[in-house]
Amino acid sequence: MLVLVATSVIAQSPTAPSANKDQEVPVVFSCPMHPDVQSSQPGMCPRCRMQLVAKLPDRIEYPLMMRLNPTVARAGKPLELSFAVQDPNTGRRVTDFKLIHEKLYHIFVVSQDLQYFVHGHGEQGTDSIFRFGTSFPKPGMYRVLSDFYPDGGTPQLIAKTILVPGGPITPGTELKSDLSPKNSGNMQVSMTLQPEHPVAGMKTQLFLHLEPADKLELFLGAWAHMLAASDDLVDMIHDHPFVADGGPNMQFNLIFPRPRVYRIWVQFQHKGLVNTAVFNVPVSEFVQPK
Length: 290
Fold this sequence. Notes:
By secondary structure, this protein is mainly β. The protein contains 1 helix and 20 strands.
C-alpha cells in the first residue's frame, strides 16, 4: 500500500516534472548547399540565395554513371557526355531533381594543365538522363565535375575523369602564385587574402574588388560562382560569396584541404556579359607550434 500511495502522490504532485511528449522540437531551416547557414525561419541563404529547407536530410552520395558517345574522346571532335543518377538506397535511376541556381544540372570541365575551363549545363531527357555536348581542345586528362540536387536528397558534387588519347596523360601541372588584377570581359577583378599566406585546413578569406560594378547582375541566381581546383586536380571546390550585395566588394571564405597551389575561377555577370577571372593561390602546410 505504501508503494501505491507513494506513486499516487508523485503522479498528482504539482511540482513533479511533466512528460516531454507534447514538447515541440524547434524546426531548423538549413541551406542545402551551405548547411552551416541555419535559421529558425524559412527564407533565402545569404550566400548562394537558395531557399532554406526544413529538416535537411543527411548527406549521402548518389552514384553517378557517365557515358561517352563516341566511347573514345578525340581532341577537337564533338563528344556527348551522358549522366545517369542512381538512388543510393534502391539503385533505381533518379527521375526528379530540384533546381540549383536556375539549372537542374551544372557541369564544370577542367583540363590537366588547368588552362581549359568550362561551366555548362546538362539537358534532361525523357529517360531522366542528362546530356551535354562538348569538344576537348587537345589530348590529355580532363576532370568533369557534376553539380545537381536529387529530390529528397542533398546537393551533390561528383567528379569524373576523361582521358583523351594522343599525348601525355599527366594529372595536374605546376602553378605559380598569381594574385595580380585581371581584366576579364568588361570588368577588372582584384583579389587580396587574409591571411596573406593561406594554410591548409584553416579558413582563408578572399576579398574581391570589382571595377566597375555599377551594372553587376545575378549570375545563375548568385552574385558570383567560384570553382577552386588543386594543381594535381584532386580537390575541386564550388562555392559562393560569404558576403556580397551587388556592389564592388565581395568576400569568399574557403578552407583549402591540402598544401598545394589552387587555381581559382570566379564568374560574375556585368551588363549581360559573363566574366571569368582566374587566380593562383599557394597554400602552405600547417606547422604545429613547438
